[in-house]
Design brief:
Oligomer: single chain
Structural class: alpha/beta
Shape: globular
Distance between the termini: 51 Å
Length: 531
């Protein structure tokens, strides 16, 4: 297939309907047919990236291999398709405008008046086509954040209109809407979908496929009505009913021939339906798992999307250990010496979550002391690993005032300190150690036994590091620095060999865990939690 095909996924009626899951499902089904696929997300907000956004605003911040702070939907793309994403897979309005303004200041527009059309839309289109033209993917799926009707989305819709006009059969629009159920009337209502499609048509876009999110099964008559009112083929109206797991969505979409319809619309042969064997095996193991593994998630953000990749990595690892993941969020702000036993005694394993700032950190120390002294399998991620080191310094080395320079500038025992080259930086955005870095793991350690190899590469997102001046004291007292960066000597992994499984990592292993290849560290952690 010579020319790249473009699929645009838009949403209407309400946000949070699952455009990312539908985009990922379409990508998975096309990938299973042998096509090369990538997915990108265009976010209409004006931030340059979500790196400075509070997780309550936008969920977790996902980090790509090249160190870009991205939208959490990129995590779904990676988990479903097993692809690598980069800075080019997530664009914001802030990035688009900054690029245009930089060009204008540079004189690239030769004195022209800069306008939304054509300058902003041209920049959007350039970014929409970039991955296809650079890497020659068969399909580029582009998800547009927000909903049709948002003022911020208008330049993106105009860009899609132009792309559809320019590319003909090589571009289709999949529109995701919501069909609410009115309990008082006992009816499902299609009017919001009709209005959403009208809004899209007013922007000059006729959707080719409609995906209807619903909590109740839609009748053939209702779908026929939607097709008629929205100028869409009946076979191109697909329902996306609530399912027990997001990983069932590709199967549900395949059952309704969503990928076949898209291929037909683009003039491509449909061929045989892929069996998706490894995917179905994963779902089968998930269904068959009867026993649970109880995992405590100790963090400060009481919002599931704030730890999305961690939750999914636990869930995947539990499935491959033939268990259901029973995850309990434990708010570290509320954790004290008095209630810690009550909160943690039922847990088979505990994860100390990443984060930034002072809030909730003392509760993490309390949790870690309990886990260390009661030999509870524990995984500390990023700030969680740093807290592991500080708790050990305070309660084992006897350095009562040990801390991170992030939390206390005046600490006499700076177990965690800022990197030398970071000290002059005052900007908030993109100033950390970001993206994939090498790590060498010592044979004979818990980390080595998890990975099964010495040389690994993992993604980072942090500004502070373990202070190497304390390595000898730590190792003498029983905590091993089992993984280090080969270039800088910075500590990447710490563990206590005497305990069943007590490992802290400076990086974020959750970012690279997928349905087909769950992360070895999470697999090992869950396995240890079962013994």
């Amino acid at each position: 297939m010579a020319e790249t095909k473009y699929i645009f996924v838009t949403g209407g009626v309400a946000s949070s309907l699952g455009k990312g899951i539908i985009s990922s499902s379409i990508g998975k089904l096309l990938q299973a047919r042998g096509y090369s696929v990538t997915i990108q997300k265009f976010d209409p907000y004006i931030n340059i990236d979500p790196g400075t956004l509070n997780p309550y605003e936008h969920g977790e911040c996902y980090v790509t291999v090249d160190g870009h702070e991205a939208d959490l939907d990129l995590g779904h793309y990676v988990r479903f398709l097993g692809i690598q994403t980069t800075k080019a897979n997530n664009i914001t309005t802030g990035r688009i405008y900054k690029s245009v303004i930089d060009k204008e200041r540079h004189g690239d527009y030769l004195g022209k008046t800069i306008q939304v059309i054509p300058h902003i839309t041209d920049e959007i289109k350039r970014n929409m086509k970039l991955l296809g033209s650079k890497y020659g993917f068969d399909f580029v799926i582009t998800e547009i954040g927000g909903t049709v009707g948002d003022i911020e989305s208008l330049p993106y819709l105009e860009s899609i209109r132009q792309m559809k006009w320019e590319l003909g059969k090589n571009a289709v629009c999949v529109h995701l809407t919501y069909v609410p159920y009115l309990a008082a009337a006992g009816e499902l209502k299609t009017k919001p979908t009709q209005h959403s499609v009208k809004e899209l048509q007013a922007a000059g876009i006729q959707p080719d496929v409609l995906v209807l999110r619903t909590e109740h099964e839609l009748s053939a008559n209702l779908k026929k009505k939607v097709a008629l009112f929205c100028n869409v083929d009946e076979k191109a109206v697909v329902q996306s009913e609530d399912v027990s797991s997001i990983y069932e969505v590709p199967i549900k979409m395949q059952e309704q021939n969503l990928d076949g319809v898209i291929l037909q619309k683009m003039g491509l042969p449909v061929g045989e339906t892929p069996k998706l064997e490894s995917w179905r095996n994963f779902l089968e193991r998930r269904r068959k798992a009867k026993s649970s593994v109880k995992i405590g998630l100790v963090g400060k953000y009481d919002l599931q999307d704030a730890y999305k990749s961690i939750l999914e990595a636990i869930s995947q690892a539990a499935t491959y250990n033939d268990r259901k993941a029973d995850i309990h969020f434990i708010n570290s702000e509320l954790l004290t010496e008095e209630n810690v036993e009550q909160e943690l005694k039922e847990m088979n394993g505990v994860i100390i979550c990443p984060g930034f700032g002072q809030r909730g950190i003392e509760g993490k120390f309390v949790a870690l002391k309990y886990c260390r002294t009661h030999d509870v399998p524990t995984l500390g991620i990023c700030l969680g690993m740093q807290c592991m080191a500080i708790e050990f310094a305070r309660n084992v080395l006897g350095l009562a005032d040990a801390n991170s320079k992030e939390m206390n500038e005046k600490t006499p025992y700076n177990i965690i300190d800022i990197m030398e080259e970071q000290k002059s930086i005052t900007n908030m955005g993109g100033t950390m150690r970001l993206g994939a870095y090498e790590c060498l793991i010592q044979p004979g350690t818990k980390a080595f036994s998890a990975y099964g190899k010495e040389h690994i590469q993992e993604r980072h997102r942090h500004r502070y590091e373990f202070n190497n001046e304390y390595i000898n004291a730590f190792e003498k007292a029983g905590m091993k620095c089992s993984g280090t960066n080969p270039e800088t000597g910075l500590v990447e992994v710490i563990e206590i060999p005497a305990l069943k499984w007590f490992v802290g990592v400076q990086f974020h292993p959750e970012y690279s865990s997928t349905v087909i290849t769950p992360h070895p560290l999470f697999l090992s952690f869950i396995k240890a939690s079962l013994t």
